[in-house]
Amino acid sequence: MHAGLTVVWFALLIGAAALLSRWLRRPGTVRAIDGVTGATLVGFGMRLALTAR
User: What is the tens place of the pLDDT at every residue in 16-29?
Assistant: First the structure.
C-alpha cells in the first residue's frame, strides 16, 4: 500500500512539474524560489545558532 501511494504521489509531482515547466523556467520564478529557499536556510541556521543547549 505504501509503495503504491508513493508511486502515485511521485507521478502527480512529475505531472505537475511538466505542466508548470515553462513557468518554473522563468528567471523571475527561479529568483523567487532561490530567495525563499535561501531565507528558509538562513532562518533554520539562526534558530539552530540561538537555541540553548
Answer: 999 999 999 999 99
